[in-house]
Amino acid sequence: MYRTKNCGELRLANLNEEVTLAGWVQKARKFGGMIFIDLRDRYGITQLVFNNEQNAALCDEAAKVGREWVIQVVGKVTERSNKNPNIPTGDIEITASTLTVLNPSEIPPFTIEDDTDGGDELRMKYRYLDLRRTAVRANLELRHRMAFATRSYLNDQKFLEVETPVLLDERHFAVDLRKFGLTVGTQIFIAKTFHDLKIAVEA
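The chain above was modelled as a monomer; its predicted structure follows.
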């Protein structure tokens, strides 16, 4: 199983449960014979613990991972000795028993954090990375909820949602789109899309 819990839902009520988590490596740090990894997904962050005395081989594997690597971990939920009140999962940590690297990553050009060190131009160049940051993701989630609520309301009022391509004449793949008041850019996009579709079908 890919995961049994997400990185934002575990609490003290889950103590001693064996769970499987998966996500991005936010950061990793060594402290004595232990390695701590903050694992992040879209729901939050959970701290992982790898103890060299308990499993040296596993600890060596954990030492190789870097920022934004995608990993999967199986472990037991334990109470943290140094709690972090700044995150919802700050009372617990996962004592790892297995580690699987799902996808390694190159070092990202800027930190994937709220207070990132990347400027606007750099973040726009790597937009797919910027979308992982909490602030940007929260905007996407807000937009989703607004669109979902709008569609649900209009559906309850018996409205139909008609997308622009539905306005095309399926016999000829194109009609005079100007009479629908569409912009020139939209007309070109629709015409090209159905032209490409017609070629694909005929092939």
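The longest strand covers residues 18-31.
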